[in-house]
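User: Can you help me understand a structure? I only have the sequence.
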Amino acid sequence: MFRNFDRIAVIKASIILLAAIAAAAASLGFDPVVERTSASAFGPSASFTGAPSEGNCTACHTSFPVNSGTGSVTITGLPANYLPGQVIPITVHAAQSDATIFGFQLTAIDRDGKQVGTVQLPSQTPAQIQTIIGLVNGQTRTYVEHTVDGITPTVFGSKSWTFNWTAPATRKGKISFYAAGNAADSSGSPSGDYIYTTDESTLTGTAVSSFDADTASDTAVWRPSDGVWYSLNSSDGAFQAIQFGASGDRITPGDYDGDGITDRAVFRPSTGAWYVLKSGGGTLIMGFGQNGDIPVQADYDGDLKTDVAIYRPSNGLWYIWGSTSGLIVRQFGLSTDLPATGDFDADGIADLAVFRPSTGVWYIQASTAGFRTAQFGLSEDRPVVGDYDGDGRSDIAVYRPSSGVWYVMRSTDGFYAAQFGNSADITAPNDIDGDGKTDISVFRPSTGLWYGLRSSDQQLFVAAFGTNGDVPVPSGYLP
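Assistant: Let's start by predicting it. Here is the structure, written out as tokens:
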């Protein structure tokens, strides 16, 4: 009897709460909910996760600013990199020591704000999780949230909800998950409740030198003497040897057809021609550049395909043939600058960047965040751009041959330095362990040995693969 009475009280409170949130949404100019599941009257309205162009639940629960209490909301279970069609269990956890009931709302969107992936709810009686649909800036978004039966703590002071999210069938680049959590006092009114927000993301296609479509880089070299690419798959240890290129070429690996597999490619300075062997089938041959140009292949238009591109030191011009955008020509840099392409603002588009050895200054023209400079490095240093903390942003980084020290300014985790290598080593940063973070790695030509430091467990990676004169494939991503 008491259980039924409490549930009726909660339902009444939820209805009042729903009305209040709807009114708040209208006053803030958010689009209305266009579809609801049958049980959604006992959960929040759509579009209050704190995602771009959304508000959060403080629109109704106004007692305290967002994220001002002693609790939290977290999203766990997301891998650093997802695979197309992968089923991923996701858990949302809300906690606060003195709260008595909890709620949440979550959505997953791509960089354009569009809903991405699908949700499968667990079989529960009664159901504790539901989905609703809303509109934000004309884009449909699906939301996962609690039901009236899903607000009771699993243990005192916290509540968790778990469901399956299935990644899209094709690569969509960075996918961001936004969640809001409510730590409430069960008073029946929106006052006295604390609201928390959080976000997490998962990436795809971040592994360089990946010839088997998994999320880890493969150990691979190119042999200029015979133009053969040798690789060892990280997924199954399979060996590959494919002849593509000739002595004098510069390797320009990338994913030119957008299938998540690295394509073997070379730039021939003597003729200014590009040759690309697409993993999906076919060969691209394109005249683009001249002797003296530096290849800077990357995805400059955000379509998940590597674009043919060169930097011309003689005039500081970048010439880019975007697979979607077509020809782009931009002036950015001086003749003595070293190009250092990367995605420094995590928008899925490669940014123009150069390192000026004479001053140790980096100049970055980010596609979304705009222009910035950073003093980082000495004249002898070599740029080794990568995402060393797995936040989706390329980090400013240099390797100092005289000391074998890597210096990295991680965009989330801050400064990091490690002695790893010697002056004769070739830098080959890549994702050895598939955790979405660039790992420090070198290839030693004198011995044909690879040395890497895995970010997942800080363990040493050593592999004998290659001979003197070979070019490590990951180094082909560094201009």
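Now, to help you interpret it: Confidence is low (pLDDT under 50) at residues 1-41. The longest strand covers residues 175-184. Let me know which part you'd like to focus on.
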